[in-house]
Amino acid sequence: MERQSEKQKKRTIAVLLCCIVMAAAGMTLYLFERQKESVPEYVFTYAENQTADYPTTLGALKFAELVEERSQGRIRILVQAEGVLGSEGDVIKQMRYGGIDFARVSLSQISEYVPEMNVLQLPYLYEDSGHMWRVLDGEIGERFLGYAGECDLVGLSWYDAGARNFYCSNRPVRTLQDMRGLRIRVQESEVMSEVIAALGAVPIQMPYDQVYEALERRHADGAENNWSSFEAMQHYEVARYFTVDEHARIPEMQICAEHTWEQLSEQDRQMILDCARESALYERELWSEHEKQAREKALHNQVQEIWLSPQEKEKFKAAIEPVYEKYREEYGDVIEEILSLSKS
Ligand code: GCU
């Protein structure tokens, strides 16, 4: 009887020990998995020159969130907004030489390396936003994303940037004649400088973050941008006359540095591409509401909105014809391809 209970005791101890060992093994495995989850395999930087609540920044944050979620924490993307990583031109240089992994930049900045890209930002090219999206979401847009490879970048997706308009600090622009002699800030872009000169004004190239001061100190009489940027950078405080002429639609491109792309597996690349495209749809959804609110805020702050008459718009178009002629010589086919996607 006694031998029997002795045996039972030993068995119970053995079972208990077994349980303890299994629980410890389970806990170790759990901790190991947790640690794996919290220490990402890749930590990438993402440059964005807009403010924290701007649609492109919110799009970037959505992108980072999707990538982290779908890679189960293996890939973390740190979005640095407000231009803290430098001007768009500097960001592209850093991406080419290994300092920054991802960014969202204006197409005009990539065009400086890939001249054919200029075609996509020619003024009065698209009849409206629908036309631009038919181009960018189709075969042409895909082809142009591929051209980013010519400057060691991978084009991921297209973000919206609405339509650009002129705004001035000292007087309104109502006619082509009013443009004469105005010093207008443009992006660091050759084609935009040519356009401004063709309109009889004087182009001044400078990075985005210097525009406010240039207007305030009267180093420039005006600038051109969309309502959202006009409001986000508080340009309305120093330029009260906003002429709605919608002369250009310059889309934004989400890009990855080629050397970063090369580190990733085929599967991760596809996942990142999917997340970029999803984040672009999200940004486009936010865009129109943001633009509307930006306009309201500017008008509420004593900005005068001037609509360019259709007759004057025709004069603006005729004035920039020589710029078109120049680009038609080399890129006539693609210009025709784009125009063929308009509805009119
Ligand atoms: C837009 C664009 C910016 C760009 C700016 C500019 O606001 O979103 O990325 O820097 O135009 O005019 O420079």
Which tags fit this structure?
alpha/beta; elongated; 344 residues; binds alpha-D-glucopyranuronic acid; 5-stranded mixed sheet; 14 helices
Structural class category: alpha/beta
From the alpha-carbon coordinates, what is the Rg to the nearest angstrom? Answer: 27 Å
Strand order across the biggest sheet? 2-1-3-10-4
Bound molecules: alpha-D-glucopyranuronic acid
- Averaging pLDDT over every residue, what do you get? 94
Biggest beta-sheet profile: 5 strands, mixed
Shape: elongated
Helix content: 40-55%
Task: Describe the structure in your own words.
It contains 14 helices and eleven strands. It is an alpha/beta fold and 344 residues long. β6 (183-186), α8 and β7 (202-205) form a beta-alpha-beta unit. The model has no long low-confidence stretch (mean pLDDT 94).
Helix and strand arrangement:
Blueprint: H1 2-38, E1 42-47, H2 55-70, E2 75-80, H3 88-97, E3 102-106, H4 107-111, H5 129-136, H6 139-147, E4 153-159, E5 164-168, H7 176-179, E6 183-186, H8 190-198, E7 202-205, H9 211-216, E8 222-225, H10 227-232, E9 241-248, E10 252-257, H11 258-263, H12 266-300, E11 304-307, H13 310-319, H14 321-339
Parallel strand pairs: 1-2, 1-3, 6-7, 9-11
Antiparallel strand pairs: 3-10, 4-10, 5-8, 5-9
The structure holds alpha-D-glucopyranuronic acid.
Alpha-D-glucopyranuronic acid binds at residues 49-50, 88, 106, 161, 187, 208, 225, 229, 252.
